[in-house]
Amino acid sequence: MISHIELLEIAHQQLVATYNLPLVLASYIVAAVAAFSSIRLARYAEHELVYDWRWLIAGGVTMGFGVWAMHFIGMLAFQLPIPVAYDMLLTIVSVVPAIIGCSLGLSLLRKTLPYSDNLRRVLSGTIIGAGIGAMHYTGMAAMRMNAEFFYDQRWFFLSILIAVILGIIGVFAEKLRDYKSASWLTLPFQISSAAILGLSVFGMHYVAMQAAIYIPGISSHTPIEKTLSPVVLSVNVSLASIIIAVLALVAVRFDARMRRVQKNAAVTQERMLSAIESIRDGFLLFDENGTLLMHNGIFAGMYPNLKQLLKPGTSYESLLRVWVKGRETFPGEMDRESYIQKSLEAFRNRTHPVIEQDEDKLFDGRWAVVSQNAINVGGLVSVWHDVTAMKNQQDIYKEMALTDGLTKLANRVAFIKRLEEAINRNKRLGKKVALMFLDLDKFKPINDLYGHDAGDFVLCTIADRLSGLMRETDLVARIGGDEFVVVLEQINSFDDIEIIARKVLETIRQPIEFNGQDCSVGGSIGISVNPDHANNVDTLIKLADDAMYKVKEAGRNNFKIHDPGTSTKSSVG
After folding, report:
1. Euclidean distance between CA atoms 457 and 443, whole angstroms
2. Who is most buried in 33, 185, 290, 554, counting CB within 10 A?
3. How far is CA 230 from the centre of its chain?
4. Contact 478, 553 (CB under 8 A)
5. Mapping DSSP to helix (H, G, I), strand (E, B) and coil, where does residue 398 land?
6. What pairs with residue 18 in β-bridges?
7. Regarding beta strands 522-530 and 147-151, do their DSSP bridges make them parallel or antiparallel, or are they unpaired?
8. Rounded CA gap, 255 and 181, in Å?
């Protein structure tokens, strides 16, 4: 801020601004519309016996955004002879004090508060005015231009005073509204009060603009990144504000109409059936005696075997017994009959069902989540929601968690699980399980010389060759870098293992060319066998890994089968 004496000293330097009158008028209209809808929303919160804070918050947000939009439309109307932009973060943050101030101010209009009506309105108008002032000067701080601006203390304090005084007048003007009257005079009264409250926002803004003094060429706040042009900003915030205000009024009208319908007229069964048929979930409704009242076509399509029972009068127990007859699994440790009894008990006691979200597999392979809930006045509503897409997506994620992203082979997690299963399975069959631990030779130079694309190509090529060589009962996995493993099931002898190992080496050595470059590799293979060498996964992996490193030490491009004695059985492939 600057004093009056300082103002006189720099008056000859300041930039002179002009105003675009149509935009000035537009800014006032936005403020008035926001005020009109926000107070309606706040008052609507008191229409029920329990105060509905959601309407109050909606009113505060609506008015806060209206004040915010009015400010920036006003800034567009305020035209300096130099370019102006706005800091994006401060522009967004500036709406917060307006929303908070308007929400708190509107909350004080509650008739149930232990204060006099006049005191509540004075406090309400003061808080709303303070929020408007805070929003204005925060928004002003967002300005970015090749100039510095100061505030004349006199006009600054006057702008705050006007915001508070007009805010109080606007809140008192709200008394003109007659919310319960259906008279044609109600609308003019409502428009008048909104016009006065909008004037408090409008007046504060333009008085505050008079407080600002712009001195060219001395600011470090030249336009920076993440700024918004005045035109883009003002058009967007004004449209958003008007939309919010209109939607708020539409919501009030719609909600009020629905409440009147619920209180003054019973919804016919035909309308209820039409509504139920329009939803995409299966639906059943039972009365307090467990008698079926209605269902929809979606449910009938999910369970065609229940078609004969889907008629008014069928008992809940009859439907339940036929439904669970086709189920294979039940929640927890329950069997079919215990599930039925617990469901009937929950119905009789009006308690939660056996399980909140019960999954059931439908006849055509789809999955549905069953939600059964007791009704306060008695009865039960059951909803079947199709979750097939979600289940399929979960299966995809599970598959991805067990698959190597590059080669699409099984990864380490899947390999360990499969090796455990193979050991248990072949133990029952009296067969051996062989584990091959394979490390590529001369792979690192390929990455270094020709890049990772070449290395990835080699890994994928080896993965395809190994997959094509093995039986369906075997597993090929990549467990990291250039390391692969092969799990061989139903092996009868070590001779069989050696034959396969030689074929693997021969397959690996075949030429590989990438972009005209020779990228051929070799392989070093270590092998351990269950049950001959070990009966658990960790030991088998360690022994195969040790055997592979012995191949590396002996010159690579070979295989070795672990020998628990003094030597290790080997053969050159």
Report:
1. 11
2. 33
3. 32
4. no
5. helix
6. 79
7. unpaired
8. 18
Q: Which residues touch 480 (CB under 8 Å, ≥6 apart)?
A: 412
The pLDDT assigned to 231 comes to 66
Gyration radius (Cα) of the chain, Å: 39
- The answer to whether 135 and 98 have CB atoms below 8 angstroms apart is yes
86-107: average pLDDT: 85
Q: What pLDDT shows up at residue 272?
A: 67
Question: Tens digits of per-residue pLDDT, 132-165?
Answer: 888 888 888 888 888 887 888 888 888 888 878 8
Contact predicate 542/530, CB 8 Å? no
DSSP single-letter state for residue 78: E
Phi, psi of 203 (to 5 degrees): -65, -45
User: What would the mean pLDDT of 188-207 be, rounded to a whole number?
Assistant: 75
CB neighbourhood size of 352 (10 A)? 11
Q: Contact, 151 vs 14, CB < 8 A?
A: no
Query: Structure tokens of 46?
Result: 């008191």
Alpha helices in 303-368 (DSSP H): 316-325, 336-349
- Where helices occur in 108-152 by DSSP H, the ranges are 117-141
Distances (CA, A) of 257 to 40, 104, 115, 185, 265: 15, 28, 32, 21, 11
pLDDT in tens, 536-560: 899 999 999 999 999 988 888 899 9
Token duo for residue 384:
């079947």
Q: Residue 558's closest CA among 455, 437, 419? A: 437
Q: Are 124 and 171 in contact (CB under 8 A)?
A: yes
pLDDT per residue as tens digits for the range 261-310: 555 544 555 666 677 777 788 888 888 888 898 888 888 888 888 888 88
One-letter amino acid of 498: E
Q: 201: closest CA among 309, 300, 64, 296?
A: 64
Q: Are 463 and 407 in contact (CB under 8 A)?
A: yes
> Which two structure tokens, joined as six digits, stand for 338?
């215990």
